[in-house]
Design goal:
Largest sheet: 6 strands, parallel
Strand order of the largest sheet: 3-5-8-11-14-16
Shape: elongated
Radius of gyration: 30 Å
Structural class: alpha/beta
Number of strands: 29
Distance between the termini: 109 Å
Mean pLDDT: 94
Number of domains: 2
Number of helices: 14
Helix content: 25-40%
Low-confidence stretches: 1-20
Amino acid sequence: MIRQFIFFTLILFSASVLSNAQNVVIKSPEYFRSPIRDGYELFPDSLVYPRNAESIHIPDIGMIGRFEDYGFTNLKKVSFGNIDYMPGGLFRNNNTIEEIEFNGFIGHFDCSLVSNCPSLRKIVFHGPVSSTGGPGFAHNCPQLDSVIFEGAVVNFGLGLFPEQLCPRLANYTNRGAFLSVYNDSLTPTATIEQLRNNPRLISDLERIAEWQAEVLTATNSGWMRAWQYQNAKILLPVLEQLNSGKFVVLKGAMEHAWNLGDDVKTDLEILKESPAYRRDTVPKPEFVYSQPSDSLLSLSRERFNLDSIAGNGDDISRIKNLLYWVHNNIPHDGSNGLALGARNLRNTYDCSKRDSCGYNCRALAICLTEALLAEGIPARYITCESKKWDTDNDCHVICAAWSKTLGKWIWVDPTFAAYVTDENGLLLHPGEVRYRLQHDLPLVLNEDANWNNLSKQDKEYYLDEYMAKNLYIMSANTLNQAEPEGETSHPVGKVAAVVPINSNYDNAHIITTDDEWFWSAPNQVK
């Protein structure tokens, strides 16, 4: 009797193991650890499906992980309900999948949603979408010929490129309405008239507004709050023009998110909110600039024939000639730091040529400062940092050169061969650029600004985004010379920083709100 019991127990246990082996258990991918929207489950304990299922349905869910990791053997179709977030690579290396169907609302999906799916033919989004990643969407899906959007999409970031290796996908089918697009020749945006005449699309946009409002007011929606705030800025004026009642709801949620702190603000918006500078009478040292007769400066001037490189024009043309020379002869590589050894022009140049490498923006700015000083042009390198200086590992270092012709400092950036003017062509210094960004005054970036002669820079990215972030705090060395820091046999200066009122910055020897002192003229020209 005991033997029979053991025998049947083993049979039942074996059947259970076999059953479990035939199932796929989907658990939380933990991209978010708390709900994106308060009161909505982020992920159930688990989802269980037969491993050999040909078709499965994913119910309403906060997020979903990549299907490549689950081990389905014969999965041909997946349908989804409502989803707050889907990662890039949702379907990757899935040889059997043929069709993907989204039946509900989608909050956001990242770029490269599908890749290396040789049997995939069709993807349909039946419901509204708040935002997409982009511009890549699909890669190496040779049978994919149909991607359909039937609902409204606020921010459509997708494009199409030959290198995506989806030869049958000629376009995205738009049966709904896109408010903002990556490529309007590929997928044009909807007009207000089109939306007004379509109650279904208005309903979609109001559903998106409700979802965005929930994300913006959630206890801890992580990075999704900041991203959806930017998308809400696209949707809000459309709702207003449609006289939608959801306009007030979304506007209130945006105000709530804005008042939480800087998370939803762009770098330019943060800079615009910066407190003012304040002049003071606290004694501070003067900035000192080595004369061209300095022995180290003389070595560089003679070694590189800087007189010839600078030319015989006015000081503005000489400054620009030296800017371009450093830019063209020492590549930028932010990951490579500074050259080992002395931080001077000769060593950095030689190491770059010897090792066929570039160096970071600080190295290039120190080199340009030295070249300018060697030619009798007062100059200093300016370290530009963000409001989040204590957690943001990215800063940018540029130069300010004194133009005797203009009687002012001017911005010169050897990393990007960049300088900046106002609408009348007047060259500006970093403090003036900062002020103009804060007050929406015209700024013009030189047309030939570029990175390593490989990629062109434009005002919208270089100034409105990158430098808007990094002009919150500026600092400079009080003693400007060859080898201003690092390994050297001579005394070095102190770091002086100009900061807005009430800044928490403490990473300098001298910290002041007095921008007039910081941008004072060199002593020899006062």
